[in-house]
Amino acid sequence: VCVCVCVCARVPVSVCLCVVDLVCFAFGCASSPVLTPPSPSHTHNTAAAFFVTYEGTKGFLGKQLPEHMAPVAHMGGACAGEVVAGLVRIPFEIVKQQMQANIHPSPTAAVRAIMATHGPRGFFKGYLSMVSREVPFSLIQFPLYEQLKVSWGAYRRRMGQEPGLQSWEMACCGSLAGGFSAAVTTPLDVAKTRILIAQVGCGKIFNHPPSVRRSEFAVSTISLHPFFCTYPHPQDGSSVMAAMRNVYVNEGWRALYSGIAPRVMWISLGGAIFFGVYERSKVMLSGVV
Fold first, then answer.
1. Is 54:74 a contact under the CB 8 Å cutoff?
2. Nearest 5 degrees, angle CA 279-CA 281-CA 287?
3. Which of 71, 140, 193, 272 has a C-alpha 20 to 30 A away from that of 176?
4. Could you give the CA distance from residue 122 to residue 120 in angstroms, rounded to a whole number?
């Protein structure tokens, strides 16, 4: 329905990115770092920033590079997209984390406290760390997604069919690309979780009231081993590697892949919904605008 409204209103093609993002949020699914975790307050802005940059960079590099180097253009577009999207996402993430840690009573109070303590730079702390986590996922997902579409189109051509893919076929490509990327980057996600939990402070969660201690955030904190307090503060990309090394040394390599099954299932489902709706929206809007 949202897509039809956009088409009738002759909205620019980039707006379909917001539509897709909100559709995925309605289903509670996430397909990439752009949508992880889903939040209606900022994911549509992040997705728009990411894909406008991704499509623009991919198109520019595609004209400069030979055809056999198309994956390089896709990787460049994905990298540039994450860098720009991170600038939109990180301020919301910082406020959200402080709210989840029960540090401030409201988002307004959190914003005022950050401005008073650190100034505008306080809203971008951990930006390099975030980008260093998100870029590897996109560097795998988007070139793989584009290549799967090309291979599927070539298969249809050999079968005597039209090379253009249907929406459900592109959704399958997105699901496969997202699931594979999720599996490969699970250690980065584990490190991110440990770092964010360590930010609250060792043992601080036990000072909260019972209702907070029973929350998902508190349970995740309590379930960690005592040495989680040794995780570094996420000021730069090196903290992610340090956290991964910490997990490996203290818990073994299997701990780096904790939660891989639900992560792969979740992102595979999100990838199918996201890319299926995204590609269909592009086709519908490109013929109108």
1. no
2. 105
3. 193
4. 5
Q: Average pLDDT for residues 171-180, to the nearest whole number?
A: 94
Query: How many CA atoms, within 13 angstroms, populate the side-chain half-sphere of residue 68?
Result: 0
The H-or-E segment that residue 186 falls in is helix 186-198
Residue 234: DSSP 8-state:
-
Q: Write out the two tokens for 139.
A: 């560097």
Task: Kindly report, residue by residue over 49-88, the tens digit of the pLDDT.
Answer: 888 899 899 999 999 999 888 889 999 999 999 999 989 8
pTM for this one? 0.67
Q: Are 203 and 272 in contact (CB under 8 A)?
A: no
The one-character DSSP state at 233 is: P
Q: Which residues, including other chains, have CB under 8 Å from residue 85's CB and lie 6 or more apart? A: 33, 34, 46, 47, 49, 50, 53, 134
Contact 24, 51 (CB under 8 A): no
